[in-house]
Amino acid sequence: MSLIDLFPSYSPAAVDLTDSHCHLDFSDFDDDRDIVMQRAMARGVQRFLVPGVKSATWPRLAQLRQQYASWQIAFGLHPYFIEQHGESDLEQLPHWLQQGAIAVGEIGLDAHVGDMAKQKRLFDAQLMIAAEFRLPVILHHRKTLDTMLPLVRKATICGGIVHAFSGSYQQAMAWIELGFRLGVGGVITYPRAQKTRQTIARLPAQSLVLETDSPDMPLCGFQGQRNEPERVRLVYDALRTLRNE
Known about the structure:
Largest sheet: 8 strands, parallel
Helix content: 25-40%
Order of helices and strands: HEHEHEHEHEHEHEHEH
Structural class: alpha/beta
Number of strands: 8
Distance between the termini: 12 Å
């Protein structure tokens, strides 16, 4: 429970926030990464979880982690880049997980991307690695929440985060019962996202984490702009309003 829960009159500016999903290692931030982080910290965002998405970017991610003490990192093979992944990447993954990773991710299944058989093969393999290392996982999904659930359960994963959750209340509770937290981002700032907003409003607060997915998934009012971790503050404010807390 945070100070804002205990003391509703407590200054929001003093709340210590985490962006639990942002891709600050992407080239989108190469020209002003330090400035972006300074803006975020000025808004109370003090910690950043940066997941890896493909093996070609893992060395740079590990290097940046050494530069920024406020970062935590994860390594994984994102289904969006399925055509770039190979068996050698799976062989490399255990090595990189030993370079300070706190999770395996971003991994998952995406029904909008081709070669689902390859996606499932790589996903299963990464779940096995996560179980071996006793690490949580950071899950990407599009129309695949129900497909992934039994696979994750079978792998005896020790929890993690369902990134950018947008499912039903029943789906949410199934993942929560499995020990997962649900990523809440810019989607709740859109009035048209009624299903997701209503679901998030009903869920246990301790099962939710804040995220931006920077540079992607812009908030309402920022369409067409690069997303930044400082806007996790706006997600936080939207969540408080949505839940009347």
